[in-house]
Amino acid sequence: MSRCVIYLDESGDLGFTFAAPYRDGGSSRHLTLAAAVCPDGSQKYLKRFISDFYKDRGVAAGSELKWVDLDAAGRLDFAKRAARMVRTRGVLAVHSMTVYKQRVLPHIQADPNKLYNYMVALMLLPVMKKFDEVCFVPDARSIKVKSGNSLHDYLQTKLWFDEGVLTKLETNPSDSEKSRPLHFVDYVCGVFQSFHEDRQADARDALAPVTNCRKLYFPP
Question: Is this prediction's pTM over 0.70?
Answer without folding.
Answer: yes
